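Support request, please re-run this one:
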Amino acid sequence: MDERRQISRILSEIEQRMRQLEIHFEQYFGGVEKRAPMQEREELARLLRQFANRHIIQTNLRFRYQNLASRFHSYCGHWDRILRLMDEGKFERGSGRVSAPKSAPLPTAAESDRVAQVYNDLRAAYEETGSGKPPEREQVEEFLARQEEKIRRKFGDREVEFRVVAEGGKPKIKVRARK
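Re-run finished. Output below.
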């Protein structure tokens, strides 16, 4: 029980640090902070790596860790993309304006979380069915964006829902517009 409390405490600390890191990056992108919080990001990555090879017996704590790690990696992808756009001169700090093409909008945190959730569900389905190697995260993200655009063209500005199902022993992503 003591180990469970310790893991729970560390996961709470990770969650708190992640919120702070989100705030610091938003302040940096907004022009409030002069430097990107890369040192805090590395410290958080190190803390998460400590759990990567650790066997967590309690399902709820393992799920909580996987959720935190997934969110962190989604945010890292988002931050790296904005930093790259800044290097290319396509993102203006302070205004938050992106002069990137309309076909490649920056994902919001909610979109990144949704992509991460679908990707994790897809990986789990591949493991359960034993049907080979799952696609890369970028491929899934591009697929979801294309499907979402098709649905929105057809049904207007409806919310799009993605589900992972196993049909015929193979995992598939089902897409539909919510009513």
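The mean pLDDT is 84. Residues 1-98 form one domain.
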